[in-house]
Prior knowledge:
The chain is an alpha+beta fold. Helix content is about 10%, strand content about 30%. The protein has one helix at about 50-60, and strands at about 1-10, 15-20, 65, 75-80, 85-90, 90.
Amino acid sequence: GFFFGMGxxxxxxxxxxxxxxxxxxxxxxxxxxxxxxxxxxxxxxKPDEVRKRIVELFGELPRIExxxxxxxPGWDVWGNEIKSDIRFAGKxx
Length: 93
């Protein structure tokens, strides 16, 4: 896997979005900006724009949002404040 900064948004401090990649997906767009300007939402909630840009960048590939606060169509989710889509050895985590 490989990680790089996808974008930044802010409340009182800048928050960073890290994007982890498995394999060698092809980037399908070169026009994705890393700066995200978004209205204030629920505490620590990623702006919808983050997920939109990730799909724009790599297309319709399997993806998971870690530390998710909501279910988003097309995404698996994991987080301590949401019912996770991930199971290990048949157990929900």
